[in-house]
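Data availability (excerpt). The following record was deposited with the supplementary files.
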Amino acid sequence: MEQAWLWFGIAGLTVVLELASGTFYLLMVALGMTAGGIAALLRIDWPLQWVAAAAVAGVAVWMLRRSRFGQRRIKVDASADPNTNLDIGQRLHVDAWDPDGQARAMYRGAEWDVALLPGESPSAGWFVICEVHGSRLYVAHVTA
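Predicted structure:
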């Protein structure tokens, strides 16, 4: 019976550590330790308790890995992500362009460096912000 309490105690500590880490992997390991505790309650020998704990934890981690919670998230380039940078998609007016495709324009009460995206023509008019790198706005012509 003492072995079961040991398994359940360690499983509880693992759940506390999981709450601090913010991942689900330690929770899966705690499930394995709980399985070891259940095996101890059923009076299964010590080595088989370890096998039960390892098997349940391994299967639980494998299942978590295959679920949507265990998938790696694709890194999004923050310079062109409108969810990260609220300037993406906003409009600004450019009065004149340098021959090299650079300009200065007023945006949000300040002058910003503005550059054209590849394939855009340097003509005055309204532009939409597509990317932001530092203090430089990369723009494209507004399409109706």
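Summary of structural features: The longest helix spans residues 46-66.
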